[in-house]
Design a protein that fits this description.
This is Response regulator. By secondary structure, the protein is of the alpha/beta class. The chain folds into two domains: 124 residues, Response regulator (Rossmann fold); 115 residues, Rossmann fold, CATH 3.40.50.2300. Helix content is 45%, strand content 21%. The protein is built from eleven helices and ten strands. The strands form two sheets. Strands 2-1-3-4-5 form a five-stranded parallel beta sheet, sandwiched between helices. A five-stranded parallel beta sheet has the order 7-6-8-9-10, sandwiched between helices. β6, α7 and β7 form a beta-alpha-beta unit. α3 packs parallel to α4.
Length: 246
């Protein structure tokens, strides 16, 4: 009951021209205690956004008129800090890559399980941060770049600081350079996952380290990215990680 009471203070906007999916998702959110508004188009959503602020927005990408990606960019400008999830039945389309590269919270591939969608929305509402564990210069630069895309992020360069960071705040994705000098990747991964079991871990690796992928996967690494990594590629990886199942 307490969870529903807390949700009652949260406002969610669901945007989709497909009425059946929109009303189904809205109804399930209402059952969880959220206050929900609906909009059949991005233009209608923008009209609602002129009069009220939402805690999270869930929108389809392909709709008549303005796309969900265009809506996301308007929201980021007009109501910065509001997390947005995008839904699509076209997982490989260019719009999806563009949205993820621009810092959308997560992409939900249609058709999706409603409970999974509710779980991802709950993650977004928790206002989690991305923890970047790398050498000090790279970590600070990466965090600054992620913040420029609207993501909350924390930079650390020592494993002990990484463990301390997740002990004090909510982290849902960790970007870990497994090639850091003196790093015991297995130990760090076990410590991180013990404290936050649902945290997704993206391992940054070199070509020489790819042979470690099977072992690291068993320790909780959800995906691997080969360095150097572009900002757009990293934000896409984070969005995919956030939409993945536990």
């Amino acid at each position: 009951m307490r969870g529903k009471e807390m949700n009652a203070q949260r406002r969610v906007l669901v945007v989709d021209d497909e009425a059946g999916l929109r009303t189904t998702l809205a109804a399930n959110l209402e059952l969880e205690g959220f206050e929900v508004s609906e909009a059949p188009t991005a233009e209608a959503a923008l009209e609602q956004l002129q009069h009220q602020r939402f805690d999270v927005i869930v929108s389809d990408i392909r709709m008549p008129g303005m796309t969900g990606v265009e809506l996301f960019r308007r929201v980021r400008t007009e109501q910065p800090g509001v997390p947005m999830l995008l839904m699509t039945a076209f997982a490989q389309e260019e719009l999806v890559d563009s949205a993820m590269g621009d810092g959308v919270f997560a992409i939900l591939d249609k058709p999706f399980d409603v409970q999974h969608a509710l779980d991802v929305i709950a993650r977004a509402l928790a206002a989690p941060a991305v923890l970047v564990v790398d050498d000090s210069v790279t970590a600070r630069a990466t965090v600054a770049a992620l913040k420029s895309r609207g993501l909350q992020a924390i930079a650390v360069s020592r494993p002990a600081d990484a463990i301390g960071a997740i002990d004090t705040q909510r982290v849902d994705v960790c970007v870990l350079d497994v090639a850091l000098p003196g790093l015991d990747a297995a130990h760090v991964l076990k410590e991180l996952r013990a404290r936050q079991p649902h945290m997704r871990v993206i391992a940054l690796t070199s070509t020489m380290q790819l042979h470690d992928a099977p072992r690291l996967s068993t320790l909780g690494v959800s995906s691997f990215m080969r360095k150097p990594v572009t900002l757009s590629a990293l934000t896409r990886g984070i969005a995919r990680a956030r939409a993945s199942r536990s």
